[in-house]
Design a protein that fits this description.
2 strands, two-stranded antiparallel ribbon, single chain, 27% strand, elongated, mainly beta
């Protein structure tokens, strides 16, 4: 099952011009989440 995410650009605080900008991933929380149990294979010893 894949996780949908969006990228967020953040700058360094208290630095003129923003400093080095970095990209972070944030999960997308809207929409319906579901698990397809037919694709999960369980290995039980």
């Amino acid at each position: 099952m894949s996780i949908k995410f969006k990228t967020i650009q953040k700058s360094e605080p208290c630095v003129s011009g923003g400093g080095a900008r970095k990209y972070y991933a944030a999960p997308v929380m809207n929409g319906e989440l579901g698990i397809d149990l037919t694709t999960i294979n369980l290995i039980i010893p």
